[in-house]
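ok so I'm stuck.
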Amino acid sequence: MKKQKSASFWVAIALILCLISSLGASMVQTGGGAIKYHDITMVTDSGHELDALLLVPKNATRENPAPAIVTSHGWYNNREMQDLNYVEYARRGYVVISISMYGHGDSEVIPDGTWWDAENNANGLYDAVKYIARLPYVDASRIGVTGHSNGALASRVAVMQDEEGLIAAALLVSNDAVYKKDDQWVNIFGSRDAGIVACQYDEFFHRVKQEDGTKSAPRDYIDQNTAQSFLHFGVDPTGLDKRSADTYYTEQIDGKESIRVIFNPAITHPWAHFSKNVVADSVTFFDKALDAPIKLDANNQTWQWKAFFNTVGIAGFFMFVIYAAIALLDARYFAELKPAADAQPLPAPKGKGKGWYWGGLAFGAIMGMILYPTIYAWCSKNRPAFWNQGATWYIGMWTFLCGVFTILVMVVTYNCYSKKNGLDLAERGVKISGRKLWKTIVLSLIVVVAAYALVFISDYLFLTDFRLWCFITIRAFAPMHFATIAKYLVFWLVYYIALSVATNGFNFVQLGKSKWLSTLVQMFFVFIGPEIMIGVQYITFFNKGFLWSELTHLGGSITGIWLYPIVFILPLAVFVCSKIYKKSKNPYIGGIIMGILACVVSVTNTLTLGCSSGSELQRCDCVVEKPGCSTVSVQQPGFVLSGHF
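replied:
not stuck anymore, here's the structure
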């Protein structure tokens, strides 16, 4: 028989993967040493602390100042979500600053509803423009602004505040311009170069009210008067030639030749974060507008390698979590937690047992699908002031309710079937002593702290983290987040512990010849619910031009986006808990670890509100005409059930 590698061996492999991830991602974002990469916190002109990344290429000097670009994430995101853009801009010789808007990342939290007040300088983006304009190696006459979704909103608000004329170009990704003022067509960009990335399947924007009271589909945006007015530099487009997407138009404005362009990719709102074509359009636009110091083909892109190395880090992180937990069982203090033999599956369900087994899995998936859209409206209107993160409140409530439902199913199953058919809760590890439970908690906390130590070390040494696009982001964070983590922790612990107990104590059964088939079946059932919901939402969108949630008024436009990470993290959670359980016969270790990790990631990757008024879950419908209108454009605030947003 082939000897199995020890847990310590796999811990070492995990550490190597994390190191490879950090080194590789660092090499990409620094251009192999050609770009200085700074983590900065500035006290801005608006009097707040702004967290940002500053990239300075070697070509930017006092003697030869370079053009600069300020970029921002969307709602519920943070500065690292713009990595594809800041990597490519810096490679082309721009000085780049990527901010976390106020209330996001580790930037200062400001009162709810004040983000777009003039004194807060476009929620920090215009503060960053002022900051970068003062740098001696920046050509202050060539500064561009851009951002995704609410980062684009911040860009356009900054343009409207820019009385100093610091901004030379603006590219709005996945958001609208302001097309009218006082019911008159308007050019808010003046002589600046301006562009819009208008995704044909944008969940929030590029809808225009029609004469019959309906709204146009976003895929028809380029044919609407709003888009045509923008391309005609803010005049009434009636009777003028129809202008096309992906075409640059120029006109003399105040003695300067100005650009207008609309890119119209057939993608969804969040996919603009990860689109090679959108990046190519973006670098081409800024080259035309600001004249890139280093000329590279638009398709010469390396950010995908950063994404690859970040993904290696995710694999290393969770490998470390699994095998660190298993390795600690050999420590003297935790010796009594280690079983005499690995956990074995229960006999394959027979007779009525098949109904309880398969019915429970199916019913759990169905209940999750029912709860997800139906509690959205209630959560958006009933957030207690104590829970000061709106997205985390909604997602956490769904998580908690699904956890309670899972517990209820286990109680009913045990009392109605499993108990009289020989299920021994103590033998399965469900029933443990208080002493063992305490040591279980201690072991789980050690694993979480050690795993996050890897993240903080990566951040300190390399300014990198472990992420898989919008699916999961494990980043270093400021101490201010600990209080918020404590507020929400119970939501995730209830579900993840229930998930692990159900997966291992009740449903780890012999299916076929492989012990892994049972785990794969459970991974499928936690995957299939979110996948069905995504399918319903987007098949409707692609066929009819509108989201299922728009047509049924169930849930919100953002709920489909929040499902993206679920299809990744739910099966991963089952896998992690199963691996730990098979060596420990303790379902609580994996559940506690995943519950804490889910909560930490959720809290540290979303918007924190500065007061209790209002609810940012409600999408604003004044997209076209009101510059202060905000929207949610979440790619990643937290975990739901076992999922991360």
